[in-house]
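Notes from hallway chat w/ T.B., transcribed later so I don't forget. T.B. wanted the structure written out for a chain they're using in a teaching module, and asked if we could keep both sequence and structure tokens in one place. Agreed to drop them here.
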Amino acid sequence: MASLEARKVLFIEDEAGLQDAYRRYFGSRYEMAFAGSGEEALLQLDRFEPDVIVLDMRLPDTDGIDVLRQIRSQLADVPVIITTAYSSMEPLMEVLGMGHSGYLLKPYDLNELGARIDAVT
């Protein structure tokens, strides 16, 4: 029986601890690439060609809204799951009109993130 090809997930996250947690938790489940800044993320879009993107809203060089705009200009249909520590809904309201596949408020359970990644098409 042939195994299914692993989903390619680009994690755009600047927190090293979260990147490590993603590697440990999802390492056998997905093919993964990581970007710790908006600039790295845009480079990875071409190199890695992700099936799904997990995007943190707070990055050291830009905010996630700007990164999402740039992602949409290059990959209009790729699912993007937003992660944020913002307790205010204001930034999320701006994102709602920009084509994303849901968001999770930090801290979140990695099982829930995995379920969201698996659910998007």
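Follow-up for T.B.: The two ends are 23 Å apart (CA to CA). Might be a good example for the class.
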